[in-house]
Amino acid sequence: MTRILLCLLLAAVSLSAQFPTPLERSGYTKLTTNAELVEYVTMVDAAVPFIRTETMALSTGGKSIPAVIVSTGGNTEKLTVLIFAQQHGNEPSGKEGALMLLRDIAGGKLDQVLASVDLVLVPQMNPDGNDINIRRNGRGMDLNRNHLIMTEPEVIGLHELALRYAPDVTLDVHEYSPWGETWKAWGYRENADETYGTMTNINTSAALRTMQKKEFLPFIEAFLAERGFSYLEYNVGGPPNVERIRNSTVDINDGRQSFGILGAFSMIQEGMNGRDSIDNIKHRSEGQCAAMTGYLTFAAKNAERIRAEVAKARAEVKKPKKVHIQMEHVFEAPREQRYFSYASQRETTLVLTNYHTKVEPRLTVEQPKGYLVPKSDTLLADFLAKHHIVHTAYAPKKKEKVMQYRVTYGTKPVFEEFELPVSAAVKEEVKGVKGAEYWFVPVMQPHSTMLTLALEPHSMINLLQYERFAHLMKDPLYPVLRVE
């Protein structure tokens, strides 16, 4: 038996050796360009029957963004996983790691996982940023802040892809930088090869969030440790005990929670960036590949449970409910965490006294039957269309009340999670609404929760955050109405 297993392992290694990535072929001296990436996935597509590629979108610069579809067939009840990398062009190891993952799949190393999982893999979301090593896309937009307003073709293409394949599980792959001068002055920095962040918006499924926190995070820490990579739960802010540190944002404009708010099991993965783009790239890319492999392995091991919980979450999303439109990160208890000490040049354990690990609601609203959006507002109409949000002509009914907010606005749109764009919003009934002037947007649809977070004027993460929708703040009578 041992001899058979050894032969199988050697065969898998041999097959993987047939598909070295462009980074490997360069001896880890040159990052993969978009043209090289397209050539590579096309070659793998031609060589492996269960792998095919399609063009997800063209970037603002006209470059191809391929999606790789991996399905070995057989089981019709498979979990569908969507992994996408390099929304930020100066975070290349996610892309390189994704190509290594594809190499391993083509070489047969993940056959057991693929018995339970179909994979949709987008190795590179931002080819324009990649090829000139900048964070934003060719139009200067941060793709990972565009998933709510969806103005960029790269983000639109991703969500169209998700609409076609309906992934149960998604993963957004990034890099974090620990090299800031503020942290250096504090004396410590983060030193984990890989970090993972759960869904933090408390309107997402509590069952899925619990599975992520209680089951996946311990699993991925052990999985990575077995392969020689270190792990830390993803957080932002700090330095700890100097400034507040928390488990990321509650906003739904990013690659993680834009899918999580629709009911998917959705997470973010961030590997540690180098001092420059090529620094330590072999280890960084291999760490990203190992972490993605771990994510797929967990999904495969828990496929039936995840599928059931995602189905429940998607059913609940469509029902009228209370939605938390203002939230706050709060402190629960002191926590130990390991950091790299600049003084000793070693890792050491510190006690964090201002790590805000819990999110609590601050303001909650009851959803209406639907919203009325002025037909004359082409930007709101575009928002509805980009998200495929159902909207129809409005026919007033006698038993319905139409309510409008009278709002006291701030001075300008804000793009800060804890700075509200309004200071007060009071509802008052509106009589004689002309149905022909409005689209009726029912809340009983897949985007139900997202709609309330986006359209309620006193939501902390609404459309008023964006200059694109500054016109909504011109009149104290908020133009989007509620049908109750």
Structure explained in plain terms:
The chain is α+β, with helices and mostly antiparallel strands. It folds into two domains: 12-322, Zn peptidases (Aminopeptidase, 3-Layer(aba) Sandwich); 367-483, no CATH class. It contains 14 helices and 22 strands. It has helices at residues 2-17, 22-25, 34-47, 93-106, 111-114, 127-132, 153-165, 181-186, 206-226, 257-260, 281-301, 303-317, 378-386, 448-455; strands spanning 51-58, 64-70, 79-85, 117-122, 169-176, 188-189, 194-197, 231-233, 236-237, 245-246, 265-272, 322-330, 335-341, 346-352, 355-356, 358-366, 370-374, 392-393, 402-409, 422-429, 438-442, 481-483. The strands form five sheets. Strands 1-2-4-3-5-11-7-8 form an eight-stranded mixed β-sheet, with helices on both faces. The protein has a six-stranded antiparallel β-sheet with strand order 18-21-17-22-19-20, with no helix packed on it. Strands 6-13-14 form a three-stranded antiparallel β-sheet. The longest helix has 21 residues, at 206-226. The radius of gyration is 23 Å and the shape is globular. The model is unreliable at 4-13 (pLDDT under 50).
